[in-house]
Amino acid sequence: MKGRAMMSRFWRDCRGSGAVEFALVAPVVILMIFAGIGGGVLAYATVSLQRATEVAARCMSMDRADLCTAANIATYGTAAYGGPSLSSMTFTAAKVACGYRISGSGTFSLFPGLSFFSVNLHANACYPGIRV
Q: Which chain regions cross the lipid bilayer (predicted)?
């Protein structure tokens, strides 16, 4: 009888239930916070790559032989990129019907909380040729 009464008191005791609930919910909340921050940094990298591609396409369309040529457009685009670190960033130039098209790409390492994921980013911009 004494064991049964002790078990009954044990199951009715609510002390420490907050700690148990915290232990169950905290990892999920922390994971969501890391995923949100990682998603924000990924969006920033995407926008920065698009901007660098547009700046390089505009420079190429200005037909400035001293600054932007097909040979050094990768250097110019990489210098114009101001976002988080991208590995294997490349910029390529092509003369197409719309003018000069620049394609930029790179690989972003995303850490949403559990492990790293590689996300390939691509951006294109086309400006008509302008004589300065």
A: 20-45
